[in-house]
Amino acid sequence: MTTIAARPSPMQWLRGQPLVRGVLLVGPAATWLLLFLVVPFVLVLLYSFWTYRLGGVMEFTLTLENYARFFSQPVYSRILWHSFSVGLQTTALALALSYPTAYYLARRPSGSHILIFLILVPFWTSYLIRIFSWMLILMERGVLNSILLGLGITSQPIRLLFTPLAVVIGMTYSALPFMILPIYSVIRGINPDLVQAAKTLGANDLQAFVEVTLPLSMPGVMAGSVIVFIQGAGNFLAPAILGGTGADLMANVIANRFLDAFNWPFGSALSIIFLVAMMAFVLVVRKWAALESIYGPRK
Amino acid sequence: MGHVSKVSLLTNRTAAAQGRRRLSLPVSGWFLRGVTIFVYGFLYLPIVVVVIMSFHPEVYLTFPLPSYSLRWYEELLHDELMIRAMFNSLWLGGLTALLSAVIGTPCALGLVRLDFPGKRLVNTFVLAPMIIPQIITGISLLILLNAIHIPRGYPYLIIGHVLLTLPYIVVTVSSQLYGFPRELEEAALSLGANELQTFFEVTLPLIAPSIFAGMLFAFTVSFQEFVATQMWATPSTYTLPIRIFGRIRDALTPEVNVVGVLTIAVSFGVVALVQIIFRRGKRGNVYGV
């Protein structure tokens, strides 16, 4: 992919120049990331300290106004808290469904290639369409209500759509592959002899699971949980489509500052606060989760 | 020594088999199987519902359907805005995949094969667009390009979509490069080929399946991206997801399901293609890999 002519002498020279080769190979991608990801991010940081005047005019005078606004108006910290809470609920629910599934798939004697493939397929179909489909399932005259009514479980349609529960269901649904796959691959990597050894030493199935498999599978649980939490807390579409009014999370509020309110400095401050809060949370949890090592050293 | 290792191998294998089988009690076995079946149902229910609902005969969506009709399939044929958005998304996805592969493939090569200062940093940043919430990527690029007075539209979409899909190319290509048979390249070099010839005659053909698979992933990601794209598109450059979202919000009709069926078909096609490529790739590895 280099553009140097195929003459032997420069090629030979290049062979002894790992840095030059690195720049030639990685340079384009690194430049792209620098220009369109890192530099813009610095700009967001800058904007968050700029002054906003009504009518979408910005003044390039430094101010802490945008951050002060976040902390003085409780509605924003409530939305931040709400985003975290929805992210955590999604993570918990996804974990509860994913762990048994991943365990089952990993311990199937006959292998699970096709089953794993089937978990990945929905992930590649449009996220928007799948979230939209949950609207059809949960709405008043939707799939779920008609089944519940048909089975006589309820006598009246239940209000499911445009509730906080609907948002968590939609997010959990889309989170499953991200939770199942890391747990699956970690459990598959656990040597069954270890479980066998625990049983030989007198542990029953449950004890062997709790003492051996569960602690050894924690890296997969953590990896999946971090991704699912970030995706849940930063989700835009599920609250926008399934949540109704007042369900907005941080992503919706930020989008709104840029698309409708045109208050870019405040939107930037919200983005920075959101990112910092999320990073801090993930780091703290990871640190805290290192406590899992009380189960003993592991490779 | 020989027979000792054979014996221990044998016991290992039976222990492993027993371990796997004995891991589940009858009760926990039923529990695990039950949850797994539920999860698969959960995963596919929305896809099935979209397909069924696309045959709804009326304007308002209800379930069960009063009857089945192809009415909304026909309506879609006359929906110029939706069709334009679809073609827009198709070519944007194609261009994105191409650019992403051109930038991402050498990057994967460099990251897997070379050691250079800053490598870990690049490694982290390459994956970042996959992890950072898309809304943040969306507003960041909006702020940058707006600051240098580029009007919203295609420049934003192309730059942004390449940024968002780059990780998929790099990850897919690197994963094949890790198990790459370097002997083949050494053979080519020792037979007198220079490095460029070796790359184009040996390396590239062997990693082509993963590049193509990465491109298909990149296409899929670009084709369905909504959150960041809403920050970058203008009505004349609306992509399919933006148009669909607008319909869901403003004028929801079963036509949205028809579009959904089409996008699901596109994704299934892509996934099937990836499967075929990797099968081919494996068969092609008969040359002693």
Beta fraction of the residues of chain A? Answer: under 5%
Instruction: Using the alpha-carbon principal axes, give the shape of chain B.
Output: globular
Order of helices and strands of chain B: HHHHHHHHHHHH
Instruction: Provide the domain count of chain A.
Output: 2
Question: What percent of residues of chain B are in strands?
Answer: under 5%
Q: Number of DSSP strands of chain A?
A: 2
Biggest interface, and residues per chain?
Answer: A-B, 100 and 102 residues
Could you give a short description of this structure?
The complex is a heterodimer of chains A (299) and B (289). Chain A is mainly alpha-helical. Helix content of chain A is 73%, strand content 3%.
Describe the structure.
The complex is a heterodimer of chains A (299) and B (289). Chain A has 14 helices and 2 strands. In chain A, strands 1-2 form a two-stranded antiparallel ribbon. In chain A, a hairpin with a 3-residue loop joins strand 1 (50-53) and strand 2. Chain A folds into 2 domains: 8-62, no CATH class; 71-295, MetI-like fold. Chain A has helices spanning 8-15, 18-47, 65-72, 74-107, 113-124, 127-138, 143-150, 164-189, 192-200, 205-216, 218-233, 237-242, 250-259, 264-289; strands spanning 50-53, 57-62. Chain B is mostly helical and 289 residues long. In chain B, helix 2 crosses helix 12, helix 5 crosses helix 7 and helix 8 runs antiparallel to helix 9 (195-224). The longest helix of chain B is centred in the middle third of the chain and has 34 residues, at 80-113. Residues 1-25 and 283-289 of chain B have low confidence and may be disordered. Chains A and B meet through helix 1, helix 2, helix 4, helix 5 and helix 6 of A and helix 1, helix 2, helix 4, helix 5 and helix 6 of B.
